[in-house]
Design goal:
alpha+beta, five-stranded mixed beta sheet, 17 strands
Length: about 350
C-alpha cells in the first residue's frame, strides 16, 4: 500500500490546481501537511530518544521522575497545540470567506447547474440560442480562461456533489435548495485534454459514472463555441440521417430536448421542464439536451468516448454500459432512472448515429 504514494497524479487531482481558488485550497493543505511533518519527526525523535535513554536495564529498579502536577510542563503542552491551531485557523477562516465571495461584473460567466440521476445539466444564462432560450448542454462544461465562472446549483432528485478537483473544492447539490460556487480557470486545456470532474456524493446505482469534463478555452475560442452552440441543429431530409430523424421524433423526444431548424422555423422539441427554487428558475429536461451531441467528446455522463462503436452499443442496450434502473421510469411524474433498452433494430440505430453525428 505504501507504493501507492509513489504513483503519479491521476486525472482527478486536487494537488495540481488550475485556478486561484484551487491554489488557495492547496496552499492551506500544504501548510497543514508541513506542520504535520515537522510534528511527526519531532515526536518520533523524542520517542526514539526516550526508548533508548530510559530503557529498562538489569539491576536498575529506579522509578522515573513523575511529572504529574508539573504546571510549567502542562502549560507548555497546552500552549503549543493552541498556537498550531491558531496558525492553521487564520488562513482557513480567511479562505472560507474568500471562496464564498460571489463574483460580479462583466467578467463573469454565469451557469446554472442541475444534478440528475446520473448526469449533469449546464444552463448558460448569459447566452441564448436561435430559439431565444439559454444555451443548455450536458456533462461537458466549456469555460473561457481568465474569467470567473459562477455556478448556481440545485438537484432534480437527490443530493449530489459537484467536484472538479483541479478547479475547486467539492460542494453539495441539494434538491429544493440553491448552493453557489465559483472559480476562475487559469490554464487553457489543450484539445482532447479536458479537466475531469465527478459527483462526490453517493447518489444511487450509477454514482461512479456521473462524471463531467471541463474544457477551458481562450476567449476567442470560447466565443466561437458559444456561436456554434447557439445554432439550431439541421433537420435532414434524405439518407440515413432522415431515417434517424424519424426515430428521434418517435422515441427520443419523450425525454430528450433538441433545438432544431424545422420548416416552420426554429423550435425546441422534447419535454419542457422547469425547476423553481427560491427566485431562480432552472430550465431542465428529463434527459440530456442533444442539440449538439455530435460535437461532444463523450456520452453516458462522460463515461465513454463519443465514438460510433460506443454510441452503437449504447443505443442497442444502455443498461449494459451503465448501471441504471429504467423499469422505475415515470415520465408523467418526471422521474427518470436511466435510459431503457428500446429494442431498436440495426437500421434504426444506424439512422440515429448518422443524425447525432450530424448534430455537431
Amino acid at each position: 500500500m505504501g507504493l501507492s504514494a509513489c504513483a503519479g497524479s491521476g486525472p482527478q487531482s486536487a494537488i495540481e490546481p488550475q485556478s486561484p481558488q484551487a491554489e488557495s485550497i492547496n496552499n492551506l493543505w500544504l501548510l497543514v501537511y508541513y506542520i504535520a511533518v515537522v510534528i511527526f519527526f519531532l515526536v518520533m525523535a523524542a520517542l526514539v530518544y526516550t526508548i533508548i535513554r530510559y530503557r529498562e536495564r538489569p539491576d536498575d529498579d529506579r522509578q522515573p521522575v513523575q511529572l504529574h502536577g508539573n504546571t510549567a510542563l502542562e502549560i507548555t503542552w497546552t500552549i503549543i497545540p493552541a498556537v498550531i491551531l491558531a496558525v492553521i485557523a487564520v488562513p482557513t477562516v480567511r479562505g472560507v470567506f474568500e471562496l464564498r465571495e460571489a463574483p460580479s461584473g462583466e467578467n463573469v460567466v454565469n451557469v446554472r447547474v442541475t444534478g440528475h440521476q446520473w448526469w449533469w445539466e449546464f444552463e448558460y444564462v448569459d447566452f441564448t440560442n436561435e430559439a431565444g432560450e439559454p444555451l443548455i448542454t450536458a456533462n461537458e462544461l466549456h469555460l473561457p480562461v481568465g474569467k470567473e465562472a459562477s455556478f448556481v446549483r440545485t438537484s432534480a432528485d437527490v443530493i449530489h456533489s459537484f467536484w472538479i478537483p483541479p478547479l475547486m473544492g467539492k460542494r453539495d447539490v441539494v434538491p429544493g435548495r440553491i448552493t453557489a460556487l465559483s472559480f476562475e480557470p487559469s490554464n487553457i486545456t489543450p484539445p482532447g485534454q479536458p479537466i475531469f470532474g465527478q459527483c462526490a456524493e453517493f447518489c444511487g446505482l450509477a454514482h461512479a459514472d456521473m462524471r463531467m469534463r471541463v474544457f477551458v478555452h481562450s476567449e476567442a475560442d470560447f466565443t466561437d463555441w458559444v456561436a456554434a452552440e447557439a445554432a439550431a441543429a439541421p433537420v435532414p431530409t434524405e439518407g440515413a440521417e432522415a431515417a434517424g430523424w424519424e426515430t428521434f421524433n418517435t422515441v427520443c423526444t419523450a425525454c430528450h430536448r433538441a433545438t432544431v431548424a424545422a420548416e416552420g422555423g426554429v423550435e425546441t422539441l422534447g419535454p419542457d421542464v422547469t425547476i423553481d427554487v427560491d427566485d431562480v428558475t432552472f430550465i431542465s429536461s428529463l434527459a440530456p439536451n442533444l442539440t449538439h451531441f455530435g460535437g461532444r467528446t463523450t456520452l453516458a455522463a462522460a463515461t465513454y468516448d463519443n465514438t460510433v462503436e460506443h454510441l452503437s452499443a449504447w443505443l442497442a442496450d444502455p443498461p449494459a454500459l451503465k448501471p441504471m434502473d429504467p423499469d422505475r421510469n415515470d415520465i408523467a411524474a418526471g422521474e427518470i432512472f436511466g435510459m431503457p433498452n428500446f429494442n431498436l433494430d440495426d437500421d434504426e440505430i444506424a439512422g440515429l448515429i448518422a443524425l447525432l453525428k450530424l448534430w455537431e
